Request: fold
Amino acid sequence: MATVSAGRQGASWGVRLGCMALGMCGVGTVAAQTAHYRGGLGLAIFLAPAYPGSDSARPFAYPYPYWEYESPTLHLHHEHLRAKWARHSSLSIGLGANGSPPAAAGTPDARAGMPSLDPTFALGPDVMVRLPERADGWRIWLGARTRYRWAMGPGLRLMPLGSSASAFVESRTPRGRVWPIVVSFGPVFRSRGVNGYFFGVPAAYAVAGRPAYSAPGGYAGVRLTAAVSTHAGPFDFAIFGRYRNYSGAAFASSPLLKVSNTLIVGAAVVWVFIRSGDG
Reply:
């Protein structure tokens, strides 16, 4: 996901985190006992690595449309589509999307002299199972998701890269909290094509200190995501962060992996000016 005014496709990380904070925490929404909808405009501002595994960071700012529809059995959000198996079921199945930012050619780091990394787009299903609610009100989900990823070249040309999969545990604060919190943790696995796109070094770009490297598929580290949110009048607010640890990753010996730990931090605000009567 350079300047603070980085382009739309380059902001996918922070926007997705901001949407998680504002959508999954349920800011400004009611329990979906009846259908309701909301819409508006959002802005995410965040600091993220220049590319995955980079030891340098860049600021981003990204405006985005916000819309959401929720009923007892369906949740349609601009980042995902999720359906409950039944009205009171603990099982939900969804379709979600995410992305990664570009890295410009000539970036003064380990990728210097290599071609730019195009932004990527990923789409795929996920499943979540809600565990019985704890006595203290905390709600816990077990989940798994798969994604297929494409790189987006000039003219929105899509180049297939490969697939990824992850499993996670997600915990949310009791209902009704003024500052609801959502925390998610789990491992990530990626195909050779995806790992190679980010961490491979073609022989043509090998230099002293950056030997040619072919990244294998497999374990791609663990990630911990947290967000806290609230609302005031027509505005929703969130602070979010994602920690990533690459220790033991299949591509740990890549010369492009400069650090084992990376962090994305940021904030988001949404102005909600369209809503149903009960939304």
